[in-house]
Write a structure and sequence with these properties.
Number of strands: 14
Shape: globular
Structural class: alpha/beta
Distance between the termini: 7 Å
Mean pLDDT: 90
Radius of gyration: 21 Å
Low-confidence stretches: 357-370
Number of helices: 14
Amino acid sequence: MTGDRGYDDPTLRFPRRERWKNVKIIRIRSWSLGKTSKWRRALNFASFLTAGAFRLLTLERFDVVVALTSPPLISFLATLFVKLKGGRFCFWVMDLNPDEAIAAGWLRQDSTVARLLEWMLRYSLRRADKTMALDRFMKERLVAKGADADRIAVVSPWSHDDTVAYSQAGREAFREQHGLTDKFVVMYSGNHSPCHPLDSLMSAALELKNRDDIVFCFIGGGSELAKVREFSAQHELCNVKVLPYQPLEELSSSLSAADLHVVVMGDAFVGIVHPCKIYNIISIGTPTLYLGPEPSHVTDLMDGYQQVYPAHNGNVAGRILEIQQLGPRLLTDEIQTKFSKHTLLPELIGILEAEPESERYSFAREVTLP
């Protein structure tokens, strides 16, 4: 069960009913008022939760109910559904709310709404038969909220092995198409949000504006993308290029086009959100500049993935110039295999299919809530 609109383009609509690879998909309608303000986002979420609650009442019992975390605390509906109709509840935590909203300054920690959302999250964690966290920092936060550590599994997201790999031909075609040939391309590809502040990277672009050989490429969408455009226009930065999300079939080409990828983590968001973009970057093998606090999941990866370069002193422009001179290092197959879809997906399926002492559950009949 999911929504019927596109994630970044809400005008894109999908069929209300669909069967894909023998999986029955139910899509429900909700409002789409945009992401330009907090109240618009809140109404979007509320409309989906309301429609989802009514739709759940019409569904039969399922063996396993898997709840994600978008919209925030959809897991609470899943717990009520399982309590009403039975089955096993697995909570797949992609990000933490209200923690994220508080860290971003959207909610006051002592507000009534924040306290209510925190209660709903803790209720979901207590009711979950199994919780999947994305990294050790997220698990630590969940345990601090009262979750049973023995019922939390840490399973990282995986790279899109089947569709994303380094492509020399794709690299050359993408660079030629967007005027990047013979440039050193610094790329941020993914969601532009307050969780991933881009101020330091934009300041580096400003500092290096007179370097004709370096281009900063921002690919994706999100609420903060407008700030990138405004900053670039205000300072007349000819070395900044902004592009929309690329189709999955073009992702290998766009990611391969970079000479240096950038992964950003806001200081307050360790254990709240997860740097998912790094796994496709690992599969490509491109050097990566990390802008964020230490320790974090990205710094945990540094032991096995020698292509990550932290910007310790905040001198982002200087660090970029250093990396430009270093050139790429060889990527070990071990780190690529560790975060492969073919390694991690079976691990996740094993968790969902785990048989309690008294009952047997079938992954084939899961229902996933967005």
